[in-house]
Structure formats: structure tokens, C-alpha cells
Write a structure and sequence with these properties.
With 309 residues, the chain is an alpha/beta fold. Helices cover 50% and strands 13% of the residues. The chain has helices at residues 2-8, 12-19, 22-28, 37-49, 66-83, 106-122, 137-149, 166-173, 198-212, 215-219, 231-243, 261-269, 285-294, 296-307; strands at residues 53-58, 91-95, 127-129, 156-160, 179-183, 223-227, 252-256, 274-280. Helix 5 (66-83) runs parallel beside helix 6 and helix 6 packs across helix 7 (137-149). The radius of gyration is 19 Å and the shape is globular. Bound molecules: flavin-adenine dinucleotide. Flavin-adenine dinucleotide binds at residues 130-131, 158, 160, 181, 183-187, 227-230, 254-256, 259-260, 277, 291, 294-295, 298.
Length: 309
């Protein structure tokens, strides 16, 4: 089931068809704050007021033309302009490099992200680079490192525990004292590249967390962002941090908008930092299909919405 939805998430014709379907649009609202920047900013503010930290994302990926990539750059400059007065820690920004032309060429993408980073730095906004499917991993890490070397020190990066290579990737950047959003990974990957068994992905996640929370990493300035809805991993993190005397402000939990809200609220009540990944925009189809792939129950809700109206 998971692979079927991940396959469908890449189908352009289906994307065109379903993106305009009323019930799909309605159900997508569970995971997406709205179509416009104004809606994204309003939802961010509301969450901030409730004590939830936010990272705002403009949906979109796999941009194939320079013109489209330039439009995404302009949209991100507008995001930074719109949120520049907000608390810079409470409201950060996330982006995908394939929105900025990574599939066109690295240099073009680098020039595009640099423009966004310059504006973000001017307004003290933190930016995190999402991690996409494995053909993009090398290029993404290369551009992330370039950003750090160019002086955009607060730049965050996402790493995925399902990839066999991730331990090495993490160790390679550890001396930078990185801000790492650790997730399990949401794309369809071959077994040669990613662990096919969920138990290996989950175990790998804990092994990576131990590296990220190690005294050397924290001393270098690492800031672990534990991006999962998995209660076992969250409990493990809480217990581990307590045992190692790691303060609540040395790391944060992160979850996706619309998923496990009660758990988000519980962590905030317990005094932990909790950030929600909040997407907006009209290109919600692939993001939405990946959310369906993660949990079969979502598909049942959707089917009920389609047929029991
Ligand atoms: C802040 C954030 C940023 C992310 N960024 C990236 C990225 O850049 N690249 C990338 O590849 N992936 C990204 N992901 C997605 C991630 O890789 C996983 O696919 C996703 O988080 C589901 O895995 P899990 O860790 O929650 O664990 P799972 O073991 O899959 O889920 C644990 C439990 O959480 C609940 N749950 C999980 N997913 C859903 C869902 N869709 N709907 C309803 N309930 C659900 C279920 O109750 C499930 O039992 C991100 C996730 C988060 C939280």
C-alpha cells in the first residue's frame, strides 16, 4: 500500500486530476494550512500563540524550468518579508532544493538559495533545507555545506534514518555543530539505498540520535531536532536527555501539521520545545500523497469522505 501511494505521488496526470477534486482538496486541508502565504502566516501565528514553534514551508518540488524556480525564490523572499517581524526562533522557514532548480543544475540552485539565505540572514530567520529522494542527497548536502561555508551558519539540514549512508553523512557534518532535523524518510527508495524493514529504520533512528546527542556533538553546538510522531522514540529521547542531563532547550521535537495534535500539546505541557512543520500552497499533491502513504488509516478516512457524503 505504501509503495502504491508513493508511486502515485509522482504521477503528473493524476496530480492534475486530483488537485482540482473537491473531496481531495477538502481532505488535504488536514495537512496543509491553506493555499496562500497569508493563510500560512495566520496559521503560524495562531500556533505560536498556543506555545507551538513553527517552521513554515511553501509546497512545491521537482521544478523543471528556470522561470518556475525564480518564482519560488520570489515567494520565499515574500515569506521572509512577511514574517521578518515575528520571533525568529518561534517561526523558521523550510524549503526543498528541487523547488529552487536542483534538477536543472547545482550552480543555478546555489545562486537561488543564496538569495534566500541573504535575506534570511538580514532578518535573522533560520532556514532548514528539507531532504528529498536519494538521487538528490549528495547535491543537497553539498549545497548545505556551501551555505555553512559562506557564513549562513544557522542553516539546518534534514537527515533520514532509512538511508544506509546517513550515519556517515551525519559524522561528516558533526564538527560544524549542525542543526539537524532527523526524520525516518518519506520517499520510495531501493533496498540498496534504504533499509526496507521498518524495525531497522527505527533502530537506525536511535543510533543516529545517540550520535547527535553525544557530548562532543553538543559541545560543537549541535542542535538535535527530533522529527517524528513515534511515541517510542519520543519517550526514548526524553529518558535519554534526562539521564545525560541534557536541558530541554538543547533540543526540540518536531511534528507535521495535522498529525498527533494531542501528543504535540502534551509535550508542550511537559515543558518541551515542539515545532510544527506547517506547509501552505497549491502544489500540495505529492506532499499529501506521502502523508497517505505513511498511514493506511488516512486512506480509509479519505475513502469515507469520497463515498459517504
Ligand atoms: C518536521 C518533519 C519534517 C520532515 N521532513 C522530511 C524531509 O525533509 N524528508 C523526508 O523524507 N521526510 C520528512 N519527514 C517525514 C518523515 O520522514 C516520515 O515520513 C514521517 O514523519 C512519518 O514517520 P514517523 O517518524 O512519524 O514514524 P512512523 O513510525 O511512520 O509513525 C509513528 C506514528 O505516527 C503516526 N503517523 C505517522 N505518519 C502519519 C500520517 N501521515 N498521518 C497520521 N498519522 C501518522 C501514526 O500514528 C504512526 O503509528 C518529516 C517529518 C517531520 C515530522
Amino acid at each position: 500500500m505504501k509503495n502504491i501511494f508513493l508511486f502515485l505521488s509522482r504521477q503528473k496526470t493524476l496530480r492534475k486530476l486530483l488537485s482540482t477534486s473537491g473531496p481531495f482538496q477538502k481532505f488535504s486541508k488536514r495537512f496543509v494550512s491553506g493555499e496562500t502565504l497569508a493563510e500560512g502566516v495566520a496559521a503560524s501565528r495562531e500556533l505560536n500563540q498556543q506555545g507551538t514553534l513553527v517552521t513554515l514551508d511553501c509546497l512545491g518540488e521537482s521544478v523543471q524550468s528556470e522561470k518556475d524556480a525564480h518564482e519560488v525564490v520570489q515567494e520565499y523572499l515574500k515569506i521572509i518579508e512577511a514574517v521578518k517581524a515575528e520571533d525568529n526562533f518561534k517561526l523558521t522557514v523550510s524549503l526543498k532544493l528541487s523547488q529552487l532548480g536542483l534538477a536543472i543544475n547545482d550552480q543555478f540552485c546555489l545562486e537561488n538559495i543564496r538569495q534566500i539565505m541573504q535575506s534570511a540572514k538580514k532578518h535573522q530567520k533560520l532556514v532548514t533545507i528539507d531532504m528529498e529522494d536519494s538521487p538528490y542527497t549528495d547535491q543537497t548536502l553539498k549545497i548545505y555545506r556551501a551555505m555553512l561555508e559562506e557564513g549562513f551558519g544557522g542553516t539546518g539540514i534534514v537527515l533520514q534514518s532509512y538511508l544506509r549512508r546517513t550515519e556517515k553523512d551525519l559524522r561528516d557534518i558533526l564538527s560544524f555543530g549542525p542543526r539537524v532535523r532527523l526524520c525516518k524518510g518519506a520517499y520510495q527508495e531501493p533496498a540498496a539505498v534504504a533499509f526496507p524493514k521498518k524495525s531497522d529504520v527505527d533502530r537506525g533512528y536511535l543510533d543516529l540520535l545517540k550520535i547527535l546527542f553525544s557530548p562532543d556533538a553538543l559541545k560543537a553546538g549541535a542542535y538535535p531536532e527530533v522529527a517524528t510522531h513515534d511515541e517510542k522514540i519520543i519517550k526514548w529521547t526524553i529518558d535519554y536527555a534526562k539521564k545525560q542531563n541534557i536541558a530541554n532547550d538543547q533540543f526540540e521535537f518536531q511534528m507535521l501539521y495535522g498529525i498527533r495534535k494531542y501528543l504535540q500539546e502534551k509535550l508542550i505541557r511537559q515543558g518541551y520545545r515542539l515545532r510544527v512543520y506547517l506547509p501552505y500552497g497549491s502544489h500540495w499533491y505529492p506532499y499529501f500523497m506521502r502523508r497517505l502513504a505513511e498511514r493506511p488509516a488516512n486512506v480509509i478516512f479519505l475513502l469515507k469522505g469520497l463515498f459517504l457524503r
